[in-house]
Here is the input.
Amino acid sequence: MDTTRATVTRQRSWRSRRLDPEHSLGLRLTLAAVAAFLVLVPFALIALLVLGAWPPLLRLDASIADAFHGYAQDHSAWVGVMTVWTHVFGPGPLRVAAVVVVVWLVRRGAPRLAIWVVVTMAAGGLLGALLKLLVGRDRPDLLDPVARAAGYSFPSGHALNATLAAGVLLLVFLPFVRDSRRGRVALWTAAVLVAVVTGLSRIALGVHWTSDVVGGWVLGAAVVAATAAGFATWRSGSGRPSARALREGVEPELADQRPEGGRA
Here is the structure.
């Protein structure tokens, strides 16, 4: 009886800690972890539908691809804009931008945040590459294509990496605009624009199916949510207060820190 009562007490204590917003592993961390899991659910569903070649999904993909391809063939300027965008915000340039941010964070005295950026970008990129091999989906095969791309199709690497980079940069730089509503709106708008338009550029150029791009967006969001939850745990372990990540970034103190060698 005493053993059972002690077990119930421990279980209640664990649950109360998970739901306590002031506890180091409290409400916000719990919600972040649950959010990461919930975002993975639609990705798993999309992946299963792609693997199973679900006819309604294939028809939807084909109809959207045909519509975009027809428009692209009649509008060369549109193709030019999409081509420039897809190269500027491709995985390579975005990874270079992430490296620049990592160096800047280290110089600013935020090595743990720099590690989070590296882990998020690397984990998402490796996961995307592995899933491409596992799923092995072919890219659209269109008559008179306006662009070409090598490799497998699902998930879209451009959509995935754009979402990773947009999420990372958003959560890193939000501390600098946390007191400005216009600043937050501008930063959020820029992040969403980069992720969305980069994904759409792949459909517009006929090198990805729509479900590839949606899968890339969802997977990228899930990876950012999961690593942000992990970073929150890391912060809690060092005794720092919990952060409202979507408003003030994953490390609000960043805006108050000075670069190495700078004056406080």
